[in-house]
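User: Predict the structure for this protein chain, please.
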Amino acid sequence: MDKLLKGVRTVLYGFSVAAMSVMLIVIFAQVVTRYSFGYTPEWSEELARFLFVWVVFLGSALIMGESGHLAVQFLPDKFKGTKFGTALDIIINLAGYVFIILLLTQGWKMTSIMTFQRAPGLDIPMSWVYAIIPVSSILMLLYLFRETTRIFNALTGRKTGQEV
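Assistant: Here is the predicted structure, written as structure tokens:
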């Protein structure tokens, strides 16, 4: 599982960097053409916006894999290693599943609904833009499953008397 997630991280990082680079180049070219030639390609702003959405969602999955999301850690840190801390970890983990499954189901619905609409500048189906929501949700579920496994191993380690 760790090997798979390491590969996923590498792909996510590479795609995020590439998409961000393309986005910055497109925006720079848009500004140059606007001020130098008085012309802006209609697709450039749309492409930059869509790439930004994809980078944000893939970046969210990437950050989740590194446990880097902004969180209120006062209680989990204060009670780490106690029974209450373990219960809190489980509750936080379950809340993560609820949120991500909600994001996945609603993202899938939005992607399905938007198949008829096309982006005016790029003339691509809007479902391609919305598809990142269920894709990133699945990636987040993979990382959350790893966290669940960590919690489970910590619980079983305590039961057997092993040091966690």
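The chain is about 80% helix and 0% strand.
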